[in-house]
Amino acid sequence: MKPIAPIVIIQTHVPEYRVPFFRELERTTGKRVEVWGSDTYFTETMQSGARAEPWYSGLKNHFFFGRTALWQSGHLSIACRSKLCVLELNPRVLSSWLILVFRRLRGKHSAVWGHLHPRAGGHSRTRFLRFAMIRLAGNFVAYTHSAAAAAMELSGRVRVFEAPNGILWSRECGATARPEAGRFRILFVGRLIAAKKPMLLLEGFALALSRLPEAIHLDFIGDGPLKAELERRVRELGLGERVSVHGALFRTDLLRPFYAEALASVSPGYLGLSAIQSFGWGVPMLVSEKELHSVEIEACRIGFNCDSFPSDSPLCLGEALARFVLRPPVWSQAREEIARAARADYTYDTMVAGFLKMFQERMRVSWEPRPLHVAIAWRGLPYYGARCIREAQLRHPEWRFTIISSRDSIPYKGIDEMVGGKVHWVDLNRPVTWASLAVPYPDLMLSTSWPHAAYQALARDAKSNGDGKVVCMVDNYLRYTPKQFLGWLYFRQILRPLFDSAWVPGAYGRRFLRFLGMADEDIHEGLYSADPDLFRPPIAAVAIRRGIVFVGQLIRRKGVVELAAAVRQLRHREALTADVTFIGQGPLRDALIKDGMDVRPFQQPVELVRSYQQASAMILPSRVDHWGLVAHEAALCGCLLLVTRQCGCVAELVEHRVNGYVMESSSVKEIIAAITWLNQLSERERTIGRAVSLQRALKISPRLWADTLDILVNRFVLQGASSAPDERI
């Protein structure tokens, strides 16, 4: 029989926007919290989002009197026996009254959480029922600061706690740094239902079109019974190019790009959590004046983060839209302040803090917050991998990072120190467990080398025993080889259930993971990055940057045999105007030296920078190269790039005949064509090419790597399947 959790929280249902909060609450308390709820709610359009969560248990809602009251079953014994029971502050849930009375008679701690007043407001005739529930429980968790202040006047025996509604984590809040000229969207985010009045916004936008710039675009993000009617009306008005109905989007990484391009968001009907989300990202809001708004109206401050318009008037709404669009400097100066105010009061962090305070006071226990644990298993951890990890560590000193790696044939110096401490060195071919490493189960594991026994065993251990999430880091790309077809079968049948997501270097890797069976939305790019703080153009202008440099393993796959043959032919023709230098180690080193090539040994990153800065171009004639990080290093140093199409970085780093030359294959003919192109460039063309190399290279960085890790943590550890409101917005 499943043991009873010390803390039980009973909800009518658990919408998706609550999942991140409950996940963090359960994680922070060491799995001492259990949440009960149903798939149904008083409003039929609202759906539960927590069915798959380990802390969630289902109960049954029985509705009466046209869905105005309900009785919940399947949880009464648990609710009555737990040390602390938190109930929804809703007098219409009749079973909650029984639980409160029973616990009061037994002297057990109870709390109610919710709206102090019904939708009708503080003068409603039924408000006394909520007050009675609060007094019966003895503890009240308020949605807003004003509700907490009002509740304190009820009785000195009621303990009041504040947990203002949040929809973002505090670290997610902040206005996107974007010029106002790049903001062109008007947003509606929420359920497409009559009470939200999306049709009113569409009509108002249509009336304002003559005064709006052509670039202004209206976006509806949400789902509901009015979606089909809304789409039909858009077609009738001929606004298909100015209005989009996107459907529901739940994840922050999908929603944030819309807010980054938004001038304003709009609440044409009653206002909900969409206001908190909008303010958290520094986007002001247009709010209808006379509506029965949710408690989030408390966050709205006219003239600071919002403006208002008379309710139910398309004409007035259109005029308000025009004001927003025609006065962008006013709002652009306030965006960061808007986000800062939301961060201070309305985040998941403040919600968790309010509940923890109640738990500590009522149960007389104190939980030290358990740090979020990220484990990174990276084969032969290279310098650039350590640099990316360090970026995330500096950003999140409160997280615990466990680094696992295998020894490479040519180790980088100081890797342990670079990632801030101990690296667990393992044998890739021997299975290990988290217990054998003396490391607790991680919340999130990132793993390269999924075919190897050690990392695969750790992934299975984290998944099956620790409830962790696992992300595979893959750098291969699609070539339709027999091995890849076998991998397709193995991955889909054996490995796909093991991985929740995938992380790849770029577009080539994305296509490969889609081939293996990973959904496009579960694939993230930006896995590899050189260090832009180390690899930089020369501080002082170099009069002449001469030479071509090859950096990498001296093996056939890298095309060094073909490169050496091309160099010999160009020398014979006396057409080689710049020396070609080979930097690296490998079995072909002695043969290259014997062939008269300039070969230098493997260089540590600090030494390699000087080689790039002195070179005019970097050449990578690989037959197959999953990414080619050396191309990124060279581009950051301002080199032109001569690479084959078989290098995975081509799409991201090279513009053919501008900042480099894309060779169709690793052949002597193609290599000679690339070097000939380079020789014929004017100094002006070289200068332009170097600038393009640097511009493209700076789009990939350890900061982007840390951003992607944040997205993965938000989605799989803190937020579960989603992070955007879809129920109460």
Shape: globular
Number of helices: 26
CATH topology group of the largest domain: Rossmann fold
Look at the helices and sheets and give the structural class: alpha/beta
The major pleated sheet works out as: 7 strands, parallel
Low-confidence stretches: 720-729
Indicate the mean pLDDT.
88
Q: Please count the beta strands (DSSP E, at least 2 residues each).
A: 28
Strand order of the largest sheet: 3-2-1-6-7-8-9
Distance between the amino and carboxyl termini: 38 Å
Radius of gyration: 30 Å
Written account of the structure:
The protein is of the alpha/beta class. It folds into four domains: 7-162, 3-Layer(aba) Sandwich (Rossmann fold); 170-337, Glycogen Phosphorylase B (Rossmann fold, 3-Layer(aba) Sandwich), CATH 3.40.50.2000; 373-529 and 704-718, Rossmann fold (3-Layer(aba) Sandwich), CATH 3.40.50; 548-700, Glycogen Phosphorylase B (Rossmann fold), CATH 3.40.50.2000. The chain has 26 helices and 28 strands. The model is unreliable at 720-729 (pLDDT under 50).
Features:
single chain; 729 residues; alpha/beta; Rossmann fold; 4 domains; seven-stranded parallel sheet; disordered C terminus
Offer a quick outline of the entry.
The chain is an alpha/beta fold and 729 residues long. It folds into four domains: 7-162, Rossmann fold (3-Layer(aba) Sandwich); 170-337, Glycogen Phosphorylase B (Rossmann fold), CATH 3.40.50.2000; 373-529 and 704-718, Rossmann fold (3-Layer(aba) Sandwich); 548-700, Glycogen Phosphorylase B (Rossmann fold), CATH 3.40.50.
